[in-house]
Amino acid sequence: MTISIATEISQEDRTASQGTPPPSPPPPQTPQAPLQAPRKLGDCTACRVTGTVALTGLGLHCLNQSRRHAPGSVGGKRVMAAVGLCTCSH
Hints:
0% strand; mainly alpha; single chain; 3 helices
């Protein structure tokens, strides 16, 4: 036992004589604040109503433009009908 203690002391003396500073202790652990629950992001009621009214109005306008007696080509009327159905269905 005495030999192992002497060996440890001599190793410490060598590092001290070489000018190498001893390793610093790790920084103390600071308690972290509890994480807040993530906020639920969503639209307000007024925004939802405004969006619904706007898209429904757009869909009705597009369906009106796709009527048979409305001016425009047959392909354009079909596109307007598709857009009108898609926006009114949401």
